[in-house]
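testing teh design pipeline on a random one, pls ignore if ur not involved
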């Protein structure tokens, strides 16, 4: 039971201090989950993160669920997920209760401007970290660049990009495996 509460409180801390969603959460997850707690190594964490992007739901919630399940099965998944979402639910409830006064406050608008800048920086750090870990050669570099260009310039939906690059990644692995057998 102690481990379940540790999962809950660890993810509650992450949920409370992470602004900007799942992408902004990656640096904090990496430090706490991979470095401090040793619940997953960097590669496992990035794999959880990649799967979380492909499954329905929020990236942050899915990642917490996967890590909790790895640690303590279904109960771990539930405790980690509840820990992550509870701070947001409480904060949003408080904001909703005071919304009529909250939104017009100059201090609140300035605070949100600062939070948006910090979240943008965290997302950028996450993108560079994912790229460093994932782009391992010319082929993966081309896949990453074409995915970026497809989404950023041509407006292709990530929902279409993800299955295509998954197939390309599997194809690359099969080709690499066959070359190794020759």
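output:
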């Amino acid at each position: 039971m102690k481990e379940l509460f540790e999962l809950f409180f660890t993810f509650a801390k992450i949920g409370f201090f992470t602004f900007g969603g799942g992408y902004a959460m990656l640096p904090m997850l990496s430090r706490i989950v991979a470095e401090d707690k040793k619940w997953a190594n960097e590669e496992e964490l990035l794999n959880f993160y990649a799967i979380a992007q492909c499954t329905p739901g929020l990236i942050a919630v899915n990642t917490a669920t996967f890590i909790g399940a790895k640690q303590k099965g279904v109960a771990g998944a539930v405790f980690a997920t509840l820990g992550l979402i509870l701070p947001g639910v409480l904060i949003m409830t408080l904001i909703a209760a005071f919304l009529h006064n909250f939104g017009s406050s100059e201090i609140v608008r300035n605070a949100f401007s600062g939070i948006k800048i910090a979240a943008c920086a965290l997302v950028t750090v996450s993108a560079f970290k994912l790229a460093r870990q994932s782009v391992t050669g010319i082929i993966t570099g081309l896949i990453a660049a074409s995915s970026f260009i497809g989404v950023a310039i041509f407006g292709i939906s990530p929902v279409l990009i993800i299955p295509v690059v998954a197939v390309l990644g599997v194809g690359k692995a099969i080709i690499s495996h066959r070359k190794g057998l020759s």
